[in-house]
Amino acid sequence: MQDKGFLMIPGPTPVPESVLLSMARHPIGHRTKDFSAVMEDVTEKLRWLHQTKGDVLTLATSGTGAMEASIVSALSPGDKVLVLVNGKFGDRWAKMAKAFQCEVTVLSEEWGKAIDPEQVKAALATPGTYKAVIITHSETSTAVINNLEPIAGYIQSHGALSIVDAVTSLGATQVPMDGWGLDFVATGSQKGYMMPPGLGFVGVSAKGWEAVEKSTMPRFFFDLLKYRKSLKEASTPFTPAINLIYALQIALGMMQQEGLENIFARHHRHKGAVRAGASALGLANYVAEDKAAAPAVTAILPPEGVSADKLRGIIKKRYDIALAGGQDQLKDKIFRVGHLGFVCDRDVLTVLAAIEGALRELGHDVAPGAGVAAALKLLD
After folding, report:
1. Which one is the CATH code of 17-258: 3.90.1150.10, 3.40.640.10, 3.40.190.10, 3.60.15.10?
2. For the chain, how long is the longest CA-to-CA vector?
């Protein structure tokens, strides 16, 4: 059926109708009192979501742009940085830091496993070795969540800055900037914010601002000092994505109405339901440990000898449900079910039923309703 598409990927995520409709309004001048009133409201809501009293900046960019803004504003050429890598995005940040002439040390973990905080502690044993530590909180490529809280503590003890990719964790689980002492937190609108792509956000601590003021990295559009100056006037230094900011205001209002604890509990329930449903269908979860499984996305291994992309193709063709594939060395080896943002119990049950249907089409003997039944036990 036309226009019946259904996103169950980790980004872009489904968008509420009220958020979409808000974007249909006429733009207003971005140097007006009316727009400043919107920005003031949005900024306060962003502080609430980030659990901070500090600054949260809104940029017309993607999550990658928000990460680049953090790196080029916090660091200087030649700075030593430790990058924690256990997936595609951790690897991307290492490449990015090298591109800006930082001296990069990589602490790696096998894909599908979380970074061991004790290994980070050991790497940071000598105070002052690193100017910053870059970490992906929720590694979207593998559906792993890293244990950020103790890692952040070790970074603070070392005296380094923390630069955090929270693109698929903020809005799905706890990322309390002030409580954990995080310095730079980068996110993107097409994830837990329940919005289309196009906005990036950077939360910056007081310690982070001290580093920005000392940084000698060449930059212009991504100079966070410009954004801080404009934020004091409830504005932006460059033309903002006005209609996306309308959408942001509505989406954040919906999140506040639900409440942080309820949002986090919902994502946790959906993670458990998808993992249980996959197991009941005879499929293995790529992330073996429950505590290392991300609340935003679940990676699943197809049956032995079955192409993950073929399985996804059947689900898209027959049920018009989009699932995500594997990336880099995991291409065609896993498929990923997103349950981030504007996702409800019905969506989780629907996708599990569709996976069962695809398995049957491929000739696999699956107990009727097994995945849905297993999920329902956790959703009740």
Report:
1. 3.40.640.10
2. 63
| Tokens linked to 305 | 């000898």
Burial 295-310 (b: 16+ CB within 10 A, else e): bbbbbbbbbeebebbe
Beta bridge partner(s), residue 164:
135, 185
Query: Which CATH architecture best describes the domain 6-12+259-379?
Result: Alpha-Beta Complex (3.90)
Residues 232 and 219: their CA atoms lie apart, in Å, by: 21
Rounded to a whole number, what is the distance in angstroms from the first to the last CA of the chain? Answer: 31
Amino acid at position 234, single letter: A
What are φ and ψ of residue 373, in 5° steps?
Answer: -60, -45
Angle (CA) 60 36 204, round 5°:
55
Q: pLDDT, tens digit, for every residue of 308-362? A: 999 999 999 999 999 999 999 999 999 999 999 999 999 999 999 999 999 999 9
Judge contact between 70 and 221, C-beta under 8 A.
no
Question: 233: which 2 tokens?
Answer: 């006037």
**Rounded Cα gap, residues 233 and 175, in angstroms:** 27
Tokens of 250: 């509505």
Q: What whole-number distance in Å separates Cα of residue 140 and Cα of residue 65?
A: 16
